[in-house]
Give the backbone structure.
Amino acid sequence: MVKVILISIVLVSGVYSEDAYERYCVDCHKELPTSLQRMFMHYLLVYGGEKNVKAGLKHYLKYPIREISVMSDLFIDNYGIKKKTTLSDKQIDEALNSYWERFKVIDKLK
């Protein structure tokens, strides 16, 4: 009985130890030829800063259309436009905060 409880605790804690970016983004993107880090750089080039990147991504996640995607036409022709997110605003914000912290370049420049 104790073993079952310990195994359950370990499994559940593993699920909750991932950040929102890992829980909500990575799995769907792992089959794509462009990494999420490279996509981040596209967003940064288009939107310019943290506030605009997060707002642009949030809008795209909620209303995905070709005209506002930062991906190339070739990429979209091959992989399509994502489906509208089922995440709540809170989940989107949490994932975008994790995404930003993971790939932001300003603190990495020296």
Summary: The mean pLDDT is 84.
